[in-house]
Write a structure and sequence with these properties.
mainly alpha; disordered N terminus; globular
Length: 474
């Protein structure tokens, strides 16, 4: 029935077009692009000028049959008017590959062989997060899938941090010469590279369970960020086309990130380097290439040689948490004059006092506070989360100086649903506040907007969303 309903009919009074009307040969579209191109149309009515095969006479009988067919034909017309979204998603995906993605890939120099091999047997993975089914509207997911935007306390669980720091110290000794050579060339300390390597893939131990073309293809076809993933998908095809990695090596995370440093395909093309001298940048198997590629990435985004990432501080009540953010920097001496001090009675280094720093309060008043340097925001370019960048900086400090935790403790925050935070953000936007984006992720613009709203309404500024605040601002 599926194939039949797609076949244009030739009812009485209609003169068939040249070549005859057609029907789809199978019940489903081909499962790979190669078969799609071989797919043919099958005539079901004669060419113009040919006899239909019907004999003369029997007009009454044919008229009666026509009356019986009328209700069926009406139903058929209605079915044919159903939107394309009613077709199976696999079929829509295959049509999108052939008619939409392939022309652009071909124009960018991707061969038919590479394209067909990459998508051979690939179907949309509907279990991936942040998808929008064809014909549906995007909604903010209720659940938070990325730990980087969840509870700060859970993200900095000692077991998690220690796995990175202890593993980092072990590998620091084993890779001392490589790390020294990388730092000499790029200016990025080895402990920073180790912290990223450990956090991303457990120093290469984590297995990537996904086919990168399945993930990137699915998300380019039907995610909330289709344009972003389309670019990444085309870059993945370029990696294979240029012989930088075979299709079989293109295993990824659920977000499409590749190899031990978890580079997106565009990042691989821009930043992956051959540091072991074997003639190819291998972020899957080579430790020197992995570590040097991470350093190259950070330098590209502006890593400042000789500066750390920041300092844990205490912030007096007289300093508003709404002063947070990379667009509200001050000289570190100015922050100190406002009463902000390093924890443990330490002074800020004299070399830092005239340089710019930024107030960072990832959990508002319910967690540790920091004065961050520009290098913190370089780390954030690796993963656009304050908690991620802070984890890397903290982990690097512990690899270099031994395990010691933050002086401040994380409060019981971060338990709201992502959809609740998005509702709060929309309410703040309606009141004229800049939250960055109503995406359910409490970034610095959302946090400081909360603080400003609280101060304006006679409340103590906490600069972090909670259930009472969601109810109050709604």
């Amino acid at each position: 029935m599926t194939a039949f309903l797609r076949a244009p009919l030739c009812p009485a009074g209609h003169l068939p077009h040249e070549g005859g009307d057609w029907q789809l040969r199978g019940r489903r579209f081909p499962s790979n692009v190669r078969d799609w191109r071989k797919w043919k149309r099958q005539p079901i009515s004669p060419r113009v000028g040919e006899m239909s095969g019907r004999t003369e006479g029997g007009a009454v009988e044919r008229a009666l049959r026509g009356l019986v067919l009328i209700p069926f034909l009406v139903t058929l017309v209605l079915l044919l008017a159903t939107p394309a979204s009613a077709a199976p998603i696999d079929d829509q995906f295959r049509a999108w590959l052939q008619n939409d993605l392939w022309p652009e890939a071909k124009a960018k120099g991707i061969s038919e062989k590479t394209f067909d091999t990459a998508f051979d047997g690939v179907k949309p993975n509907l279990k991936l997060p942040d998808l929008v089914l064809p014909g549906k509207k995007a909604t903010t997911p209720r659940k938070q899938h990325q730990a980087e935007f969840g509870s700060p306390g859970a993200y900095f669980a000692e077991k998690t941090v220690r796995a990175v720091t202890s593993g980092g110290r072990t590998r620091e000794a084993a890779n001392a010469r490589t790390l020294a050579a990388i730092e000499e060339r790029y200016g990025v300390p080895g402990e920073v590279l180790l912290a990223i390597w450990g956090r991303e893939t457990g120093f290469g131990a984590a297995k990537m369970p996904y086919d990168a073309f399945e993930v990137l293809g699915t998300k380019a076809f039907m995610s909330t960020k289709k344009a972003f993933f389309r670019t990444e998908l085309l870059a993945a095809l370029e990696i294979v086309e240029r012989g930088l990695a075979p299709v079989g090596a293109m295993k990824s995370s659920w977000a499409g990130a590749l190899g031990q440093p978890q580079f997106m395909p565009t990042s691989f093309l821009k930043h992956a380097v051959d540091f072991d001298g074997d003639g190819r940048a291998d972020i899957w198997n080579s430790v020197p290439d992995t570590l040097a590629s991470i350093a190259n990435y950070l330098v590209h985004y502006g890593w400042v040689k000789g500066r750390g990432w920041g300092f844990e501080v205490t912030v007096p009540e007289s300093v508003s948490c709404s002063l947070e953010g990379p667009d509200q920097g001050k000289k570190i001496s100015e922050w100190a004059a406002m009463g902000i001090k390093r924890v443990g009675g330490k002074a800020f280094p004299a070399s830092e006092l005239k340089k710019e720093g930024f107030l960072l309060m990832p959990a508002g008043r319910s967690g540790p506070a920091f004065i961050a340097t520009p290098n913190f925001y370089v780390l954030k370019q690796y993963n656009t989360s304050d908690l991620y960048a802070l984890f890397i900086g903290h982990g690097a400090d512990r690899i270099a100086n031994g395990d010691s935790n933050f002086s401040g403790s994380w409060g019981a925050v971060g338990g709201l649903h992502r959809s609740d935070i998005a509702a709060l953000q929309r309410a703040l936007e309606a009141k004229g506040y800049d939250v960055g984006s109503a995406d359910g992720l409490p970034g610095f613009k959302t946090r400081r907007s909360i603080g400003k709203w609280q101060a304006k309404n006679g409340q103590a500024a906490t600069c972090f969303p909670d259930a009472d605040l969601v109810a109050a601002i709604k």
